[in-house]
Amino acid sequence: MKLYQCVLEFLYRNREKGYSRITHICMDPNDATRIAREMKEKGLIDFKQRRFVGSNGELSFIAPPSLMIAPLGIDMIESQYPGQKSLRTKTNP
After folding, report:
1. Which of 17, 24, 61, 83 is the most exposed place for a label (fewest CB within 10 A)?
2. How many domains would you assign to the chain?
């Protein structure tokens, strides 16, 4: 659950950028895909993922997912931090 919270906070901080990758939070692309699917089912995020097909027509590579926080995820983060209008970093004033 802590991993989900870290991902949501990161996406909340970077929501102006649109889709972001979480490879620095979750190094394994398969785990990142699993987490993204679970969070999308709950309505917290939206994600897109590139799939590369080999010459034989079979799936040869799946890129790590790019995620974007959904309105429900924004509401969840803002309800957890009611004293702060938004989570901000030095790069996002």
Report:
1. 83
2. 1
Q: Which residue has the higher pLDDT, 40 or 65?
A: 40
Nearest-angstrom CA–CA distance, 41 and 47: 11
The 3 state secondary structure assigned to 10-40 is HHHHCHHHCCEECCCCCCCHHHHHHHHHHHH
Q: The CATH number of the domain where 68 resides is what? A: 1.10.10
pTM above 0.85, yes or no: no
Q: Please name the residue that has the structure tokens 């993922």.
A: 49
Distant-in-sequence, close-in-space partners of 69: CB < 8 Å, separation ≥ 6: 8, 11, 12, 15, 44, 45, 77
Cβ–Cβ < 8 Å for 69, 8: yes
User: Is residue 85 situated within a structural domain?
Assistant: no
